[in-house]
Amino acid sequence: xxxxxxxxxxxxxxxxxxxxxxxxxxxxxxxxxxxxxxxxxxxxxxxxxxxxxxxxxxxxxxxxxxxxxxxxxxxxxxxxxxxxxxxxxxxxxxxxxxxxxxxxxxxxxxxxxxxxxxxx
Amino acid sequence: xxxxxxxxxxxxxxxxxxxxxxxxxxxxxxxxxxxxxxxxxxxxxxxxxxxxxxxxxxxxxxxxxxxxxxxxxxxxxxxxxxxxxxxxxxxxxxxxxxxxxxxxxxxxxxxxxxxxxxxxxxxxxxxxxxxxxxxxxxxxxxxxxxxxxxxxxxxxxxxxxxxxxxxxxxxxxxxxxxxxxxxxxxxxxxxxxxxxxxxxxxxxxxxxxxxxxxxxxxxxxxxxxxxxxxxxxxxxxxxxxxxxxxxxxxxxxxxxxxxxxxxxxxxxxxxxxxxxxxxxxxxxxxxxxxxxxxxxxxxxxxxxxxxxxxxxxxxxxxxxxxxxxxxxxxxxxxxxxxxxxxxxxxxxxxxxxxxxxxxxxxxxxxxxxxxxxxxxxxxxxxxxxxxxxxxxxxxxxxxxxxxxxxxxxxxxxxxxxxxxxxxxxxxxxxxxxxxxxxxxxxxxxxxxxxxxxxxxxxxxxxxxxxx
Lengths: 120, 467
Fold this sequence. Notes:
The complex is a heterodimer of chains A (120) and B (467). With 120 residues, chain A is an all-alpha fold. Chain A contains 5 helices and no strands. Chain A has helices at residues 11-16, 21-47, 51-67, 71-86, 91-119. In chain A, helix 2 (21-47) packs antiparallel against helix 3, helix 3 runs antiparallel to helix 4 (71-86) and helix 4 (71-86) packs antiparallel against helix 5 (91-119). The longest helix of chain A has 29 residues, at 91-119. The radius of gyration of chain A is 15 Å and the shape is elongated. The relative contact order of chain A is 0.17. In chain B, the strands form 6 sheets. In chain B, strands 2-1-3-6-7 form a 5-stranded parallel sheet, sandwiched between helices. In chain B, strands 9-12-15-8-16 form a 5-stranded parallel sheet. Chain B has a two-stranded antiparallel sheet with strand order 4-5. Chain B is built from 20 helices and 18 strands. Chain B has helices spanning 21-31, 45-51, 70-80, 95-103, 116-147, 150-153, 159-172, 188-197, 216-224, 241-244, 260-272, 298-303, 309-316, 331-346, 356-364, 370-384, 412-426, 431-438, 442-450, 459-466; strands at residues 12-17, 37-42, 58-62, 64-65, 68-69, 85-90, 108-111, 178-181, 206-210, 225-226, 238-239, 249-253, 274-275, 284-285, 289-294, 318-321, 353-354, 389-390. Chain A binds chain B through residues 13, 16-17, 20, 23, 26-27, 30-31, 34-35, 56, 59-64, 66-67, 81, and chain B through 19-23, 25-26, 29-30, 64, 66, 91-92, 112-113, 117.
């Protein structure tokens, strides 16, 4: 199982805790349970042009995206966060949030499958 | 009581304020690797602010929260709990925000990145060391204050001790010289400390000097100090005890052991309020309160010519006579209990109690070594007893106990009879001598003999008679 083809990478989590499988599981469950909703909210807020909310949500997702090393989003989420904060090039945000949301939902699907494998 | 000094660190409470559930989980997990960290998580400013009054030691604060911002919350924390250390964790490094936060009292500012956890760990470890040191300091300060809150440091409810307490209070209120006399082990040094630490001089040194413990030749330089080279071995300038105690209190224990030449020098210092170090002509002004203690009656020493009369009157000031332990009645039990609790506590033993017989044994022992002796007797008893009860057999005194009286409860008449019989037994039935010793009439003894209350022979003789 190579991590390179994956959207995410758990190395960082393992570097924090290499032995306690329950901890990894709990973090993953938290990720699956919270991130898709936040990501949906992000899209919604962007379309409603609630930029302050967009900023908060992007900011909130950033640390988790870093933690799970979802590389394809690390740059994108920062652009959304900064543009929403500075209200600069707001038109760029729409595409980006849609992209982010797609990747996140895919990532959740992937991680759920992998997680089932880990569990077995 | 010295837990703080041992290497065991107290647990510290850490509140994690972070709205991102995943990140919060990771932080909490990482910090929980240290079992001494008591962690609580909050995902909104609202919930957290409800709990701030619990005054956590450390708060890790996410700068961007949905319902408030880091700098607002920081100000609120500092208002409610100024001692709480706040580590702000922010999604982006913004120097302006950082400067502003530090100005508002943030302890640290950490950017969320690869090294966040390590840096947070370092920051918390540092804070923890500070907290431990601070708590240690507070414990010690309390300890010192408690120690010299004399009604607690000096245990006693007896009338004679109440008199002593009153004298301590009066002495503490003034600068009068105090002379404390009493048998060895009665707590003369405690009285001296109690006076000093309850007086206005308490923030200046309390310097005890045991005159008997310092060789005569060295006493002068010990008390007055010396200049470099003033005598063989004086390799450096040294200030003496009088100077060390400046503005504070000098406690001269066993003052009666001071030789006459030295007494003259001390008298001069006390009269002039100034001294010169050995080997120096320079006069140094001193402001010292003197407390002296002796276990001999100084006046007798004066009469015998061993103590200067003028110094005696100079030092007499307010005399405090420490009663011997055997005169203090129930105080013996109070003090014994205190030592038992202290000893068990210090040695991780279960709490122990004195049973009735043990109490009696203590009450009837004469304690020539006074409280010092009581302490060692009860400490040994704690070691000897295997259960929570300390029995009479565990109490090992030096046999000086007045065992005639140390029996079950008797009436006064029965006591009197027993006492006289004891004296007759040990004085070879010499009625005249016993009457003198006990200061009673010999006819009283003869009357009691004729009433068969007393016997003028040994019990074994009686057995022969009956045959």
